[in-house]
Amino acid sequence: MLGFLKEPVVVTAKINVNLVALTIMGFISRLWGLCYPRAVVFDEVYYGQFVSLYMKRIFFVDDSGPPFGHMLLALGGYLGGFDGNFLWNRIGAEYSMNVPVWSLRLLPALAGALCVPLAYQILVELHFSHCAALGAALLILLENSLITQSRFMLLESILIFFILLAVLSYLKFYNLQKHSAFSGSWWFWLLLSGVACSCAVGVKYMGLFTYMLLLATAGLHFWHMIGDQNLSNVSLLCHFLARVLALIIIPMGLYLSFFYVHLALLYRSGPHDQIMTSAFQASLEGGLARITQGQPLEVAYGSQITLRNVLGKPMQCWLHSHTNTYPIRYENGRGSSHQQQVTCYPFKDVNNWWIVKDPGMQQLVVSNPPRPVRHGHIVQLVHGITTRYLNTHDVAAPLSPHSQEVSCYIDYNISMPAQNLWRVEIVNRESDTDVWKTILSEVRFVHVNTSAVLKASGVIGASLPEWGYRQLEVVGEKLSKGYHQSMLWNVEEHRYGKSQEQKEREVELHSPTQMDISKNLSFMAKFTELQWKILTLKNEDTEHKYSSSALDWITMDTNIAYWLHPTSGAQIHLLGNVATWASANAAALVYLCLSLWYLLRRRRKIYDIPEDAWQLWVAAGGVCAGGWAVNYLPFFLMEKTLFLYHYLPAVTFQILLIPVVLQHLCDHLCRSVLLKSMFSALVVAWFSWVYFVYCTFSPVSYGQPALAPAELRALRWKDTWNILIRKQ
């Protein structure tokens, strides 16, 4: 029974020494001196703010992309015990002792290091030789730009890691397709491909480019499977459903989970939540929630309310009035109604309060029981402090002469009667009998007499003159001119009015609300709003000293100075390995020319290379050249400030193309032993050049050692490079 103990238990394992050595070298190149410099380096000033907000659980919105990458950086801060207390206001600022610099930079560095063995494995899975795979990995290892970008608290190295992981996983899955379909390893690599794609998109939306490439590749492969007569209809259906599950459904679910964790962590109000809707703000701890907690949910006749414009552009603002009137004549000579001004005011103020009045009754208090206002009801809006009625008439607005002026009506005993009836239309209603709700309902006010809609003016960036205290214009817009978010309003602050006398009502308007009711948003409602803000909220693009165009990247006519030592000549620049980038451009050109040549020859039934070599050539091009194209060409269509680091995912794929082309030339164009020997010698000489350039620019990739002014001038290989030299 215990006979198996007579023999020793032996475990055997295959170890790829190349892979282990490359991984170790990758870790050394990215982790060496990781804490240097102990100062804010370039965009660390940007991402560091978000890490601090995570540590303090304060909500923020970053229009540059989804939150997964920020959460990974914050994880580094959390593991290092960072408390979030640091003022991220200046590049070059020295880190205080409470900032765990090594921990914050660790995850990007690990991701950058792992890109080296990933490059090796991708070439192996593309069925190229281990020598070609080793060359690809060494080129990634010695790429100065990738080294620099991965050693700081930045997202590009993490993005590239997940992109390469997705490509490798899909290639492994595809290679298992013929002999091990639906096996455990087959499922593992397919699922990992989808997970890696979702993570890449979750770090930056640039990850979508590679995700779309892999989806297109998977679609093409499945199209070929449909023509395989050996596969039954049931088998094809199972393959299709497996791919939909792994490459679409799971990535979408994982993407949602990034936002779920993000919103669960950031539950406190902060400066960024002002751009969100009132309902979203009220769901956060502190801020608006302090004001709105306990407000009545249903708006009733007699309710005292503030109305916030839903659009929030050019800034958030509330419907407002004050005792001042429109001037009799404007600067351009046009006349006005000389009625009381109505504006959109970007600050909370007692003059933002309005009372919802039933036109058929005189009372300005809520009855018992309250009579709720529903979709389609006619109301009057009475300004709380001045008790004048919201009104519009056929008089041109001050800044928008094609729209109607909105005012609070003053009876001058002239032939301009009051027109103060408004129909309440709840845009996001579920039925035509919906009740107008605090915060949740988005409401449009349609003027009964003229059918004009109450709207915050679309004159972006313009405000009323001095007579209007530089506040924003409110107009009556004709329905025929279309629908816009600037026509929507939601009740933000709300109380049930109890005082009929004006003096008592003014005191009441200054008092906080004290009634209990909950208005929590669902996760999907919060996700939808946050996702829309990320996609549509754009900061004004300003010209940056180191911004560049996509054309500058190909020839590396630009660089970025990341950090400069305050006293010595030590500095860090984002600069690529000139030898590698030039070789990558040459490889792409050779691949294009050879592919066109082969296609023309094959059209004439002339086959210069075997069919399996042609298939290998096409597959490698689809991954490497295709990866470069989808990650580079879209930038020509983007209207945003671009930097050299945007090119790093594309150039990574282009670098992988170099050994593909070299092996192809060696195998199929160098037909004699002499030619192969000469070609190998040239490759060794070329690689020595790559290593020489890496060593030459290492001081400005790592920031040490400090170079003398003469040495820095020698590094200015192009006049367009901005190498910083201190005056002696």
Descriptive notes:
The chain is of the alpha+beta class and 728 residues long. It folds into four domains: 35-99 and 266-291, no CATH class; 111-153 and 545-727, no CATH class; 161-264, no CATH class; 297-495, Trefoil (Acidic Fibroblast Growth Factor, subunit A). The protein is built from 21 helices and 14 strands. It has a six-stranded antiparallel beta sheet, with no helix packed on it. Strands 2, 3, 6, 7, 10 and 11 form a six-stranded antiparallel beta sheet that branches. α4 runs parallel beside α7 (156-175). The longest helix is centred in the middle third of the chain and has 33 residues, at 233-265. Mean pLDDT is 89; it is low at 513-518.
- Can you tell me the overall shape? elongated
Which regions contain 5 or more consecutive residues with pLDDT less than 50?
513-518
Major pleated sheet = 6 strands, antiparallel
Overall tally of domains: 4
Instruction: Work out the strand percent.
Output: 5-15%
Number of helices: 21
Oligomer: single chain
Whole-angstrom Rg? 33 Å
The structural class is alpha+beta
Number of β-strand runs:
14
The span between the termini is: 86 Å
Give the proportion of residues in helices: 40-55%
Please give the order of strands in the largest beta sheet: 9-8-5-4-1-12
Task: Quote the average pLDDT.
Answer: 89
